[in-house]
C-alpha cells in the first residue's frame, strides 16, 4: 500500500513539473581581476536542474584544464571561495573574490548567498571578480 502511494505521489509530482525543467541549466563563468586588470577569461558550463553553483564550478574544473578554484568550508557560512586560477585572496593585501551574477536582462546582482547555496538560472553569467576592500 505504501509503495503504491509513493508511486502515485511521484507520478503526480512529475506531471506537475514541466519535462524541460529536468534538463541542465547552461551558465557562463567570467573570471575578472580588477586589481591588476589582465584580460577576462570566460568559460561555459552547466548546473543540473536546481543545482548549486559549487556543482557547476566543480564540473568546470574537472572538464577544463584552464580553470581551477579552491574554497574553504566555514562552519557558519558554508563554502567560501578562496582562489581562482591560482590567484588567492589575501587579508594582508586586502583582496578577495567577489561573486556577482549578470542576469539575461543585463542587470548585475550580488547574491545574498555564496557558491554553496546560489542556484543559477539559465544563461546566468557568473562573475568571479578579484577585488580589493
TrEMBL record:
One of its GO terms (biological process) is cobalamin transport. Residues 71-131 form the Transcobalamin-like C-terminal domain. Keywords: Signal. One of its GO terms (cellular component) is extracellular space. Coiled coil: none annotated. Residues 1-21 form the signal peptide. One of its GO terms (molecular function) is cobalamin binding. The keyword Signal applies. The keyword Signal applies. Pfam families: DUF4430. InterPro entries: Cobalamin_Transport, Transcobalamin-like_C. This is Transcobalamin-like C-terminal domain-containing protein. It comes from Amphiprion ocellaris. The gene is LAMTOR3.
